[in-house]
Structures are given as C-alpha cells and as structure tokens.
C-alpha cells in the first residue's frame, strides 16, 4: 500500500461565523443543502477551515451522501425503514407511530457534520452532497446551525 500526503497548509483561526438555516421538508426523505452550505461559507468570508453543521432536532439528521443518482436516497430511506420500522412495538408512541423510529434513525445517522473548507470551498468529493434527512412522515421546518471556523479568505 502506498500513500501520499499533500503539502501541509497552516492557517490561524481568525474567523468564526454562525448562521441558522431553516429547511422545509415534505416528510420522510432527504433535502440537499449543499448549495446553502457553500453560500454560507462564501458569505462568512471563509478561507481554509472547517464548516460545522448541527441539526437542532431529535427526529431529523444530517448526512453526506451521493448526489448524482436519486435512487440512492430512495434506497437509503428503505434501509432505514428496515432498521427501525414503525410497527416494531415501540413503547414511546405519544407523537405517533413514526416518532420513535425517527429517533432511532437519527441516532444511527447523527445530528452533526464537520466538513473541511479549502480555499473557501467545502472539500466534498465529486459525488458528495450534504443532506438533511427527515425521518418523520409529515412535513416539518428544521433548523440547521452552520458555523465556519478558520482563516478569512
């Protein structure tokens, strides 16, 4: 096996910027927020650093996934439904049969992401996109806190 390390780029944290993105969902599925994340880094005047994203909910999550073929997202919804089905006999059902499975799906996928920013651009791969995953059946308004930490552009 061989590995090659690129030259190290060093920067001093001189900029911390924060904003909240409100995302309207249509129910279970994925909403791509990559463009909004890029616009935030640009508006923050970010150079090299890190973009942090945090969803302020327990029944929705954040993921980085393929952004080329929408069948991937369809299959991911199916996979999560198999891992945490609505009819599994959950004790917590006060908010409906999809609530506890949504909590489990959030626990599996996570509520935060850290994306490197290089040269003012999130360093995502060619086919990667940032998504808010809605795990509830009905539409919601979700809040995602975005924060850039790093050097100014």
TrEMBL record:
Pfam assignment, any one: YjbQ
InterPro entries referenced in this protein's UniProt entry, alphabetically: UPF0047_YjbQ-like, YjbQ-like_sf
SUPFAM superfamilies, A to Z: YjbQ-like (SSF111038)
NCBIfam families recorded: TIGR00149_YjbQ (TIGR00149)
PANTHER family: UNCHARACTERIZED PROTEIN YJBQ-RELATED, UPF0047 PROTEIN C4A8.02C
Homology family: Belongs to the UPF0047 family.
Name of protein: Secondary thiamine-phosphate synthase enzyme
Organism encoding this protein: Rhodoplanes serenus
Upper taxonomic lineage: Bacteria, Pseudomonadati, Pseudomonadota, Alphaproteobacteria, Hyphomicrobiales
């Amino acid at each position: 096996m061989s590995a090659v390390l690129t030259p190290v780029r060093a920067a001093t944290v001189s900029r911390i910027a924060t904003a909240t993105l409100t995302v309207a969902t249509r129910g279970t599925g994925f909403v791509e927020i990559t463009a909004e994340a890029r616009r935030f880094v640009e508006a923050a005047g970010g150079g090299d650093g890190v973009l942090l994203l945090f969803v302020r909910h327990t029944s929705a999550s954040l993921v980085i996934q393929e952004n080329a073929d929408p069948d991937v997202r369809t299959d991911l919804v199916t996979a999560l439904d198999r891992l945490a089905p609505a009819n599994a006999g959950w004790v917590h059902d006060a908010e409906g049969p999809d609530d506890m499975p949504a909590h489990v799906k959030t626990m599996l996928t996570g509520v935060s992401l850290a994306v490197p920013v290089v040269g003012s651009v999130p360093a995502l791969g060619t086919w990667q996109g940032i998504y808010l995953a809605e795990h509830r059946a009905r539409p919601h308004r979700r809040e995602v806190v975005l924060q850039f930490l790093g050097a100014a552009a």
